[in-house]
Every structure is written in structure tokens, then in C-alpha cells.
């Protein structure tokens, strides 16, 4: 048996892409999105990973984390993970460090699959052929026309059976905005996301008011830092409305805390934050043990191989900003059909390749 190829080079670079219009949610406003792209080389192949994070993560990867990967087997991803999490012990595992490790982990899995000549979905082992998506946008900065056009297009053009809108920055306007959204999407399900904008009591009032618009999903009605408050909202919410959270789970313990508190009907996880594909698969196992469905947060192109592998996976967020960026910067970005995306099994790894010349215009 030949020796396993060892990691030789790790490169990281940040790119910042302006939004196509001002955007806001219940607690934040932005006009650009930054991602850090990682390439890891071994055995004549290159793996790609990325995370939507701060540009400071690129030098963190190149100066602190990359040297610890040099010489490790490209096949032994658990060992690489143990090394990386050990390096950041005194830096703090959550936040920026977790996004850095997540980008490296997705790159390592892509590299391993390319070395083996396999599509990553096949390396993980598929539970399903495709991943259902739901349209996501509906920013609080949008006027009613923008809201209707964007959410309606998710249904009419992409075939989404559910769409999500932001609420909470001007709560007095939200009922009228929800009515406009529901009129635009017809029979599709309406989801709302407060991004932790409310207190538990206020969130319960919002949930009851939203029931008339057929809202089926209320994401982060309160901050995920308050599992007990979220559990209280879940207990008081209308019977047909599910409570969801988990996008800020940086470690498996973060998500375990939400599950143990009874905070969610559906858990979320984000491969660009939770430790990459390895962390996502651990969270998927945790959700399976708890009999809770799992939904992928944002970065749909990167999530796709693991989305078709997770046992209780429900759907993937087709987030406006990330869909736009992934189409702009990567060859191989998936195209929805009938409300779902499907891995391209003719391409090794996750199938994504950075369009270097196009991306250079946005390099930080």
C-alpha cells in the first residue's frame, strides 16, 4: 500500500463582495459580505473550502493554523481536526477560530475526495439524491415591492415550497410585510426570522400575530444565548409553528445545549461555523439521537454534499447573498430545479472551483 499523501501547502485569502442592495434584519444591517477561501494541497491535488467570516481569519489561518497541518496525512482528517482545535484552545474556540477551522475542514474533505477520485457526496454516502431548499431573503430594508418580487421569484423560478423573510427591526410594520409576502408566494410556506430581536414575551406575541399569515417556522425569536427563553417561546407558540435555531453553534456543545433545553423543533447548523463537514456530521448524529430534524444554514453550494448525507436533514437555506456570491465566484455552483439542488456526481470533491480572475476583483 502506498503512503498517504501529506499536506504540503495551505493558502487563505479574503474576498469582500458588495450586496446588490442595502440589507438588514432584526438586529443588524450590512452592505457587503466577506468570505475567506482556503486551498490545501497534497499529492498533486488541491482542496477548496471557505467560510463567510471576517477578513482577519485569513492571516489567522496562514500564520497560526497552516503550519500545524504541514506534513500531516491528507486522509487523516480527524487527526488534523484534533490538532487545529488544540491550537486555538487559548484563543477561544468559538467565533473567528471556529470559522477558520471550518474552512480548513471543508477544504480537507474536498482534498481527500479529489485524491480518491470521488464526488464528496459519494464519499460521505448519500441518504437522499437531492437536498430540498427554501428561499431566504426578505430583508427588513426592502420595501414591499422588493419583498414581493424576491420571495415570489423563489417560488416561481426556483420552485421553492417555502420562503423566509426577516422581521424585527420595525416590529410595527411586520404584520403588513408578512401579509405582502404571503400574497406573493401563494400556497408556499412562509418562514420568519427575527435574528434574536425579541424578548420571550414579545416573541410569543409576534408568533400569535403571525399565525394568521400561516407562518410555519419562527427562527431565533430570541437570542440563541437564551435557551430557556427560546424554550418558553416554543411552548407558547401556535401548534403549527416550529421554532428553529442553531446557526451560531460553533461546537457540538452549543447545539447540545439548545436540544437539552427543549429550545427548538428544528435544529440548524452551518458548515462554515460548526467545524466544517466533520462538525456538521457530528451535529447530524446528535439530532438523529434526539429525534430532531436538521436544517442547513446558508452557504448552499458548500453544504450540498453533506446535506444529502445527513439522516434527518430537512432542507437547506437558499440565502440570497450566498447564492449570488457562489454563482459569481465558483464554477460548479448548483442550480435549483423543482425546489431542490443535486450534487454533480461527475465532478470530484464538492465540485467547486474558484474563478480566480473574477474573484481577484474582490480580494481584500
Would you write up a description of this structure?
This protein has two domains: about 5-120 and about 355-360, Enolase-like, N-terminal domain (Enolase-like, domain 1), CATH 3.30.390; about 120-350, Enolase-like C-terminal domain (TIM Barrel). Helix 9 packs parallel to helix 10 (about 275-290). The chain is built from 13 helices and 14 strands. It has about 375 residues and is an alpha/beta fold. The mean pLDDT is about 95. Helix content is about 40%, strand content about 25%. It has helices at about 55-70, 75-85, 95-115, 120-125, 145-155, 175-185, 200-210, 225-235, 250-260, 275-290, 300-305, 320-330, 355-360; strands spanning about 5-25, 30-40, 45-50, 130-135, 160-165, 190-195, 215-220, 240-245, 265-270, 295, 315-320, 330, 340, 355. The chain starts with 6 loop residues before the first strand and ends with a helix.
Distance linking N and C termini: 43 Å
Order of helices and strands: EEEHHHHEHEHEHEHEHEHEHEHEEEH
Count structural domains: 2
- Helicity, in percent? 25-40%
CATH superfamily of the largest domain: Enolase-like C-terminal domain
Unreliable residue stretches: none
Give the C-alpha Rg: 20 Å
Q: Indicate the mean pLDDT.
A: 97
Question: What form results from the Cα inertia axes?
Answer: globular
**Helical/strand content category:** alpha/beta
Strand-residue proportion: 15-25%
The name of the CATH architecture of the largest domain is Alpha-Beta Barrel
Total DSSP E strands: 14
Question: Mind summarizing the main beta sheet?
Answer: 8 strands, parallel, barrel
Spatial order of strands in the largest sheet: 4-5-6-7-8-9-10-11
CATH topology of the largest domain: TIM Barrel
Number of alpha- plus pi-helical segments: 13
Amino acid at each position: 500500500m502506498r503512503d498517504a499523501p501529506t499536506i504540503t501547502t495551505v493558502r487563505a485569502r479574503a474576498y469582500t463582495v458588495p450586496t446588490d442592495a442595502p440589507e438588514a434584519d432584526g438586529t443588524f444591517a450590512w452592505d457587503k459580505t466577506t468570505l475567506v477561501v482556503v486551498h490545501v494541497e497534497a499529492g498533486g491535488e488541491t482542496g477548496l473550502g471557505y467560510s463567510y467570516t471576517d477578513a482577519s481569519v485569513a492571516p489567522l489561518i496562514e500564520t497560526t493554523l497552516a503550519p500545524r497541518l504541514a506534513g500531516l496525512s491528507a486522509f487523516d482528517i480527524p487527526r488534523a481536526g484534533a490538532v487545529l482545535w488544540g491550537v486555538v484552545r487559548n484563543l477561544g474556540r468559538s467565533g473567528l477560530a471556529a470559522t477558520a477551522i471550518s474552512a480548513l475542514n471543508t477544504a480537507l474533505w474536498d482534498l481527500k475526495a479529489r485524491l480518491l477520485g470521488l464526488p464528496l457526496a459519494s464519499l460521505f454516502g448519500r441518504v437522499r439524491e437531492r437536498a430540498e431548499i427554501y428561499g431566504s431573503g426578505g430583508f427588513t430594508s426592502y420595501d414591499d415591492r422588493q419583498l414581493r418580487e424576491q420571495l415570489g421569484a423563489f417560488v416561481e423560478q426556483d420552485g421553492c415550497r417555502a420562503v423566509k423573510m426577516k422581521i424585527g427591526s420595525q416590529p410595527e410594520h411586520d404584520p403588513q410585510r408578512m401579509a405582502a409576502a404571503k400574497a406573493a408566494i401563494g400556497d408556499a410556506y412562509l418562514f420568519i426570522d427575527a435574528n434574536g430581536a425579541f424578548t420571550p414575551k414579545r416573541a410569543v406575541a409576534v408568533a400569535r400575530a403571525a399565525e394568521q399569515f400561516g407562518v410555519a417556522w419562527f427562527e431565533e425569536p430570541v437570542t440563541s444565548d437564551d435557551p430557556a427563553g427560546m424554550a418558553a417561546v416554543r411552548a407558547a407558540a401556535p401548534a403549527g409553528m416550529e421554532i428553529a435555531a442553531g446557526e451560531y453553534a460553533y461546537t457540538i456543545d452549543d447545539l447540545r445545549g439548545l436540544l437539552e433545553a427543549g429550545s427548538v423543533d428544528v435544529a440548524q447548523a452551518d458548515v462554515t461555523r460548526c467545524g466544517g463537514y466533520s462538525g456538521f456530521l457530528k451535529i447530524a448524529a446528535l439530532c438523529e439521537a434526539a429525534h430532531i430534524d436538521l436544517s442547513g444554514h446558508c452557504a448552499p453550494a458548500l453544504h450540498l454534499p453533506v446535506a444529502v448525507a445527513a439522516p434527518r436533514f430537512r432542507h437547506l437555506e437558499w440565502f440570497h447573498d450566498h447564492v449570488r456570491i457562489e454563482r459569481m465566484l465558483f464554477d460548479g455552483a448548483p442550480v435549483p430545479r423543482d425546489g431542490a439542488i443535486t450534487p454533480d456526481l461527475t465532478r470530484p470533491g464538492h465540485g467547486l472551483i474558484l474563478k480566480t480572475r473574477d474573484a481577484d476583483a474582490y480580494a481584500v
